[in-house]
Amino acid sequence: MKHILLTCFILLGIQVYSQKSIQLLDQETEHPIAFAHYLYQNQKGNTNANGEFSINFVKGEKLYLSHVNYGKISFADNEIKSALQSGKIYMSKTYVSLLPTTIIARKRTAKESETMQISSNDKLSHDAGEFLSQSGLIGGIRKSGSYGFDPVMRGFKYDQLNIVMDNGMSATAACPNRMDPPISQVPLNMVDRVEITKGPHSLRYGNSFAGSIHFKSSTNGFADKASAFGRATGSYESNGEIFRTEALAGAKGKFYNFGVFGAYSEGSDYEDGNGDKVASGFNRRNIGLAANFKLSNSQNIQVSANSNYAEDVDFPALNMDLREDDTKMISVGHKITFKNSALASISTSANASFVDHEMDNLTKNLNPRKVNAITKAETKNYAFRSEAAFQFKESSLFAGIDYKSEEADGTRSREMLMGPMAGKTAYDNIWQDSKIEKLGFFGEYHFSLNETHFIASSRLEHNSAKSNFSSVINDPSDEINFSFSIGASKNLSENIRMGIWFGKAERSGSLTERFINHIPVDVDPYERIGNPDLDPEINYQIDYNFNWNTKYFSLDINLFNSWLRDYISSEISSDVQPLMASAPGVKQFVNINKAVMRGFEIGFNQSITNLLYHRLNLAYTYGKNKEINQPLPEIPPLDIRYSLGANLCKQKFTPELMLRYAAKQGRIAENYGETETPDFTVLDFKASYLFSDHFQIIGGIRNLFNEAYYEHLSRSVKGSNQAIYAPGRSFYLTLSLNL
User: Residue 592 in contact with residue 625, Cβ under 8 Å?
Assistant: First the structure.
């Protein structure tokens, strides 16, 4: 009898253990994931409103979980037992990866299941544009050797790309020549990952005319016990004597998480592969804070603020150098979540940025010096955004409203030193006190049919532009732009997924394209004047994606074709005279009827052995102005990158060789003053050693063979046809401490 009772108690215990409830939670927010589908042998169903479900343990069977926003994931025996014991399973949102999206600038951690994060060495980058150029997908327009790289993706640039951080925070360049592009204001030491959505397919955070670059900051989690955290990183690079450092200090508890961060970087002129000096001095620093406060179990508020300051930056391709750039950025966000309701959450945020910019030619080596020029400009950027997220049984919906205002004003003074105007000073209103306001309504719907995942998105935007300068008509220019996208992706097997997307986007002219006043802002030296009567340019684009992933390798193929209508370009205005003698004439922004862009990106990653891995990436874009049958300007050539590395000493030591080949670019826009660019090959080496969870050392050699080369997107040194050459051989060392 005693043995029978003991057996019954054991069986009862096993039954209780096997039927224990599991709660499915979001990895970042720890909020329940409702209506997720589970399949475990013949047990299947959906999680309830609290993300809970129950299963009976079956040895040797896999548990499959799937959700429209989180993808599909499987669990083996040991993982199922762990989940039954803890009562929790965490999933990360993957619907972003279902879009034509590339996640770059991440480093895989030792544990395959952990989130990939930006490395310590990357967080030191003083310019996010230069950092993105590590990917073959992104090129950078270079007017300086070390600062202010403006991203170009698939031949699209400037306002054709939507560049935001977190909840839509961004800045507007105050310099007409974009010494301070919006991407340069991103505090990279607070960024956790970068999501690059290619094409007009992600419309929630703005009008993504040709693509979106979204910087996501580190997750501000909480802790059961009060604790402090911190980080400090420093590096030195030999060529250009570049010194960089960044640090973070903060604390977290049950209801708060806040951190104070800062960075300082400086450098001087570097030597190119020919041994010639390139003017590239810079000084850059920033300080800021980020905080997250839990108001209740369902509400939290986030606050961030940062101040970026740059001074004495050399721009050899421009008429002036940057003297001072002082930028302030502020963001406040609130989120409330709901249980037992189709309305899952409401997220609201308000952002503002203020840029004060000064540049001059006072330190330029001009002979003869005909004029002393100083420009002071400022921009103001205000934004508001509110989004509701709905979670239904088999679908989800994001819908909201946003508003953005951009204002620009500035004056250039020209003190004449020679000629009949000697001794006099002229003043030019470069931005014509202009303003653009955008009010948008957006929606994005996710649903699945027969194992095919669909995402449909749309944006309706009212765009109003005006100038308060007396020489410009003050009547606002009002336009309604409608953009939409529909796409589908399907798992053809456990390892293969295919997707196809079609989108149409409309974009009104930018502040530069509508209001710039006699400033040479493009490849050629012609002064540009704005055109308030520009029609919105239109992009019809189709994208095809093929993904093949196994345990040991992954293959990603992306093809795209873009048909452009009313493409914004510029042409010579023979009846307008330039203000500066150095300009051969004046061009005004105009619409051209038809243009096309098409191309591909291919990425291949493979684990050759348990220790050895390699990667291959290719990117190519073809662009053509069909109105004059000529290539579009500033299209980067075929770019091929190959890496070979190893994880040694229990993955503590990681050496890596990186080979890059850029083909000759013979397709040039002669009417823009472009010239052909020769091909080049560059080899880099880096290695890192993780001494402990707290201390890491990274070192390497850039341009190992001291190749003399320049990028096709590099502008020419002012007054010559010589492009800005890239740095020659350079040694660097980075030390990183995490507490």
Answer: yes
Question: What pLDDT, in 10s, does the model give residues 353-412?
Answer: 999 999 999 999 888 888 999 999 999 999 999 999 998 888 889 999 999 999 999 999
Contact 107, 93 (CB under 8 A): no
Q: pTM for the complete prediction? A: 0.87
- From CA 728, how far away is CA 66, in angstroms rounded? 50
Buried-state track 580-600, b at ≥16 Cβ within 10 A, e below 16: beebeebbbbbbbeebebbbb
pLDDT tens digits along 54-94: 888 888 788 888 776 776 777 877 788 878 887 888 876 65
CA dihedral over 150, 154, 155, 161, signed as positive or negative: negative
Q: What distance in Å separates the CA atoms of residue 442 and residue 162, rounded to the nearest whole number? A: 15
Q: pLDDT at position 104, please?
A: 60
3-state secondary structure of 670: helix
Determine the Cα–Cα distance for residues 539 and 565; give it in Å rounded to an integer: 7
- In terms of Cβ atoms closer than 10 Å to its own Cβ (0-12, 13-18, 19+), residue 720 is exposed
| Long-range pairs for 241-247: beta carbons < 8 A, 24 or more residues apart | 241/267, 241/268, 242/146, 242/266, 242/267, 242/732, 243/267, 244/124, 244/125, 244/126, 245/124, 246/123, 246/124, 246/189
pLDDT band at 165 (very low <50, low <70, confident <90, very high): confident
Look up residue 39 and give its two tokens.
């399949």
Q: CB-based contacts of 599: which residues, under 8 Å, 6+ apart?
A: 154, 155, 559, 560, 619, 620, 621, 622
Rounded to 5 degrees, what angle do the CA atoms 701, 640, 498 make?
Answer: 130
Residues paired with residue 322 on neighbouring β-strands, in sequence order: 313, 359
| SS3 (DSSP) at 146 | coil
Tell the residue number behind the tokens 């979106």, with chain if given: 212
Longest dimension (CA), the chain: 119
**What is the C-alpha to C-alpha distance for residues 524 and 672, in angstroms, rounded to an integer?**
5
Cα–Cα distance between 253 and 223 in angstroms, integer? 5
Task: Measure Cα distances from 487 to 104, 455, 544 in Å.
Answer: 22, 5, 10
Return the closest-CA partner of residue 24 out of 93, 95, 92, 88: 88
Residue 528 tokens read as 């540009």
Inform me whether the pLDDT recorded for 3 exceeds 90: no
Cβ count near 604 (within 10 Å)? 16
Pairing of strands 639-646, 553-572: unpaired
How many other CB atoms sit within 10 Å of the CB of residue 291? Answer: 17
Give every CB contact of residue 196 below 8 A, 6+ residues apart in sequence. 101, 102, 103, 104, 135, 137, 138, 153, 211, 212, 213, 214
Q: How far is residue 611 from each of residues 410, 641, 652, 693, 696, measured CA to CA in Å?
A: 57, 21, 11, 20, 20
17-to-9, 54, 82 alpha-carbon distances in Å? 12, 11, 11
- Do the beta carbons of residue 425 and residue 414 sit within 8 Å? yes
CA separation for the pair 228, 703 (Å, rounded) = 40
155/597 Cα distance (integer angstroms)? 8
Domain range annotation of the chain: 20-91, 115-738
- Ranges of H-type helices in 607-699: none
Would you say 252 and 291 are in contact if contact means Cβ atoms under 8 Å apart?
no
H runs (alpha helix) in 90-190:
95-98, 120-123, 128-132
CA–CA gap between residue 728 and residue 707 (Å, rounded): 6
CA 117 – CA 712 distance, rounded (Å): 30
Give the class (CATH, top level) of 115-738: mainly beta
Closest by Cα among 249, 214, 159 to 465: 159
Task: Give pLDDT, residue 120.
Answer: 65
20-91: CATH superfamily: Carboxypeptidase-like, regulatory domain (2.60.40.1120)
Rounded CA-CA distance 532/513 in Å is 8
Compute how many other C-beta atoms are within 10 angstroms of the C-beta atom of residue 687: 17
Could you count the other beta carbons within 10 Å of the beta carbon of residue 527?
25
